[in-house]
Amino acid sequence: MIVAVDPESTLPPYEQLRVQIAGLIGGGSLQPGARLPAVRQLAADLGVAPGTVGRAYRELEDDGWIEGRGRHGTVVRPNRPTKPPEQRQRRLRAETEILVSTARSLGASDAEVLEALRAALGR
User: Fold this and answer.
1) Could you give the strand order of the β-sheet that contains 66-68, starting from the edge strand earlier in sequence?
2) Secondary structure element (H or E) that encloses residue 76, with its range
3) Which of 12, 24, 92, 93 lies 20 to 30 Å from 82, alpha-carbon distance?
4) Per-domain residue ranges of the chain
5) Is 1.20.1440.20 the CATH number for 13-76?
């Protein structure tokens, strides 16, 4: 699993990890049953506090992407999460606000943001 934390990002580190790991699962790079690194190990590898990774894992678990199995680690759940439409829409709006905020901090124009979004949707 390859994830990174960008210290220059306006997105908090735990959110960067959450988004990247969910993307790896949703995109099929992490298959159901795949074991994620231990919280402390991933934190050490990334140079972040264990609480940062722990929060990302908790949110991914709350969203239905992964499940903690105590001593047996954390694994990708067999089914993709499904949320009620209103929860999904609320989360989509929040994620879009983060995208726009990040794009603004980079100095990107609306046209550049739309182009990047269209390219991502085309994958």
Assistant:
1) 35-36, 74-76, 66-68
2) strand 74-76
3) 12
4) 13-76, 85-121
5) no
Residues 42, 53 contacting (CB under 8 angstroms): yes
Phi-psi domain of 41 (left: phi exceeds 0; alpha: psi -120 through 50; beta: other): alpha
**Measuring CA to CA, how many Å separate 31 from each of 39, 65, 84?**
19, 11, 24
3-state SS assignment for residue 68: strand
Cβ neighbours of 36 (radius 10 Å):
24
At 77, which helix (H) or strand (E)? Answer: none
Q: In terms of DSSP bridges, do strands 35-36 and 74-76 run parallel, antiparallel, or are they unpaired?
A: antiparallel
Q: Letter for the amino acid at 12?
A: P
Q: What's the gap between Cα 64 and its chain centre?
A: 12
